[in-house]
Structure formats: C-alpha cells, structure tokens
Design goal:
alpha/beta, 18 helices, 14 strands, 43% helix
Length: 428
C-alpha cells in the first residue's frame, strides 16, 4: 500500500489506528465514523465491570433461625444472645440490600425508575441499628462478631478502644478503624462499606463520672465523641497511610451508612447500677437491702440510662440501640467449648497427633479440670487454649521421636498436678 493510500485509509474514531493496523474495522451508520475490534473489546470489558460490581453489592442473607444454627456450630451457649444478634444482623443487611436497591440514581436515565419505586411505596428510609454487647471476659463477644462476618462473607475489622485517641493526640486516630476495614477488604471500598467493625473494650473509654469534665479526656469521653461521626452514617475521609503526618496525600472517601458497628466490653459494675435502679427490698423497720439478683439475671435488663450512668455519653448510647447481654460460662459450658465446636481445641490436638499415628484421648476428669482451672483464673473460654497448651507441651515434644507410642490418655492429674499422661506403646 502506498504512503498516500495509508494516509487516506479509514481509521478508528476512538484510537486512531488505520484499517491496515487492526483485524477488523466496523463502520457506523454515520459516514466517516469507525471502531476497531480492539476498542470493541475494551468497551465490552468496561460494560462488564459495573455489572459484576452491582451483583457483589448485595449480601447473601440467611434467615435468623439459620443464622443462629450456623453460630451454634462455632459458639457454645449464649442462646439468647445469639437469637438477638441473628435478628439484628439479619435486619441490618436486609436494610443494606434495600438501600442499595433504592439508592439515588447515578445518572439522569435512572431518575424515572427511582420515582416509580417511590410512588409504589419503596421510598421508606430504614435507619441503622448498631449493636452493644456486654458480658464477662472470655464469654464469646469477639468470637460472635468474627463468626458473623465469616458466615455472611463480609469484611471484618477489630480494634481495641483503649488504643484510640482524639485526632491531634499521640495514639491511633478513630479514622484508622475504617482504614483497617478497607485493608481487610483488599482495598475494595464497595465491599468495605458493607463490612463489620468490632470495637472491643468500649467500657474502658467510659468517662469517670456523670458530670462533663472541664479538662480534655484524651482516651475517654473525647474518643466517644470522635466515634460518633463514623458510627453514624457519614462519608469519612481517610488517610491511606494512616495518621496525619502527610497532609498532601490523597484521602480515601468511604461511606459508613451500611457498615455494621458492634461494640463490646466487660462493663464491670454495670450489674450494680442496674440492681440499684430495679429497686431495693424493704425488711424490718423500713431498712433497705439489695434484692439477691445474679449478674446473669440483671444484665439483660440494662436500659440506656444505666449505660449513661456507667459513663457512656448519651449520643453514643443512642447510636447502639440493640443491646446484647452475654452470661458467664459455667464449667459444663467450657467442657462443651473444649469438645463440640468445629474448631474445638481438643479436636485440633486429636488431629495433630493422629497425623503422627497416635491416638489421643482426654478423659472426663481432665476436661472438667481444664474448665475449673479456667474459671479459677477468671479467663473464661479465652484461657482454655493456654491450659491445654501447657499440659500438652511435653507430649508434643516427645511423640514425633518415639514411634512406639500408639495411644495417650490425658487425666485430671495431668492437668492439676502436671503428672505424665497414660501412654500405651507397641508390645516389645
């Protein structure tokens, strides 16, 4: 082809390539307008991306009964707490899917569709209901939040409230909570905006008294105030590297409207506040004594005014309308924790030794001794692994080298006194 013909040949109106440089050149109805096969492929790819994203926007929901059944596979006891959480989480993500379906139009072509939806009654606005969990250490608060995110397949982030400070003070800014969620979502902002954030040890940032302090409370009331703006529906600007040392860096913008916030804490002393409110029993000559109420009986009756008296600011209490009380785990509950869940500690050790060709057994006395030891240490289920690890250390050290061992039985003496377990070996 001559140079003149190359100059005069039809060209793609998008990339400018000539007919001789591409495989196909498609002519448009308008004279002089063409598109090449490469640009068609790019357009196809661009059209498919929003479609895939819209499909991923919705969260696959399980009804509350099924959601609780899934929680039962990983968490022992706390049946009432699991029921409350199942309903709250189901309603939250039902609201998320509803809001996505009725979201404002991104262009003018969608305005008529949205108007039609609203005229049919779909214009109702559903408010967010965040969750507050309280109960003793080791009763399953963190595990409940983690397991919910796993079941729903949504991003999850956890932060300790005691590490947070107001912006401008040494410590971790509140906005870094959102950055942590974004990182756990592989920087997929749309996915992060449907995630779960668990803030632990919230009771540790309660103000020291009911009166507002005239001094700055860097890690207490001030942090509660800072949390308000992200817990409520807002578009937050987050430094991608955390902190505010580089003001010139571009901010990540994230909408927290559909993020579920779960707050947790032990709230030691809250039961006494509730008992005082519930009243006293009058005996004798007008004397007052507290009615004999257990903590498990009192905590489910917590009211917003009790949390405010404990030290949470009213604005924060108003943003966590769903309250969940977890009870202290008893010895029989801890024994079930050791043996029943999919990831039970005993099951893990049985499997580890099975890989070495050795059978492992914990007798009933050993399981009870482990549970009683955890209760004595006031660690709840959190301390079970440490107790078992200590008891199994010598066994795990010896077994791989001694090929004659066929069975090991851990007894109560092994847990309580550190005596060696019963070992069955091959006959000499």
């Amino acid at each position: 082809m001559s140079k003149k013909n190359v100059i005069d040949e039809p060209r793609c109106s998008f990339c400018g390539k000539g007919e001789s440089q591409v495989e196909h050149l498609i002519a448009a109805p308008t004279d002089g307008v063409f598109i090449c096969n490469d640009c068609v492929a790019i357009c196809k790819q661009q059209l498919e991306v929003p479609q895939a994203k819209n499909t991923a926007d919705k969260v696959a929901l399980l009804p509350p009964e099924q959601l609780k059944a899934e929680l039962d596979k990983y968490i022992i006891g706390q049946d009432e707490a699991k029921r409350v959480l199942s309903v709250a989480v189901y309603n939250h993500y039902k609201r998320v899917n509803y809001n996505l379906r009725n979201a404002p139009p991104r262009d003018r072509d969608d305005e008529r569709t949205v108007r039609e939806r609203k005229s049919k009654g779909d214009g109702v606005e559903l408010n967010k209901s965040n969750i507050l969990m309280f109960g003793p250490s080791g009763c399953g608060k963190t595990l409940l939040a983690q397991t919910l995110s796993k079941i729903l397949n949504v991003p999850f982030a956890m932060v300790d409230a005691t590490t947070l400070t107001e912006a401008g003070y040494v410590g971790e800014d509140v906005e870094n909570i959102l950055l942590r969620l974004i990182k756990n979502a592989d920087y997929d902002i749309a996915a992060a905006e449907r995630g779960i954030i668990y803030i632990d040890e919230v009771d540790k940032i309660a103000r020291k008294g009911e009166n507002v302090s005239i001094t700055r409370d860097v890690s207490g009331e001030g942090v509660q105030q800072s949390l308000l703006k992200i817990i409520e529906s807002t578009i937050s600007s987050i430094p991608p590297n955390g902190g505010r040392k580089h003001p010139q860096q571009e901010f990540i913008h994230m909408d927290t409207t559909n993020v579920l916030f779960i707050l947790g804490g032990a709230f030691v002393g809250l039961d006494k506040i509730v008992s005082d409110r519930l009243g006293k029993t009058r005996i004798g000559f007008g004397g007052d004594i507290h009615a004999d109420r257990s903590t498990d009986e009192v905590l489910p009756k917590v009211q917003p005014q009790d949390l405010i008296k404990f030290g949470l600011i009213p604005e924060l209490v108003g943003r966590v309308p769903v309250t969940v009380a977890l009870r202290d785990l008893k010895s029989e509950d801890l024994v079930r924790v050791l043996t029943e869940p999919k990831n039970a500690i005993v099951k893990q050790y049985v499997k580890l030794l099975d890989l070495d060709g050795v059978s492992l057994e914990f007798d009933a006395g050993a399981l009870t001794a482990i549970a009683d030891k955890a209760i004595a240490l006031h660690t709840g289920a959190r301390g079970l692994r440490t107790i078992v690890e200590n008891a199994m250390l010598d066994i795990m050290y010896t077994v791989p080298s001694d090929k004659s061992i066929r069975k090991i039985v851990v007894t109560s003496d092994t847990i309580e006194n550190g005596t060696p377990p019963k070992i069955v070996k091959d006959a000499a």
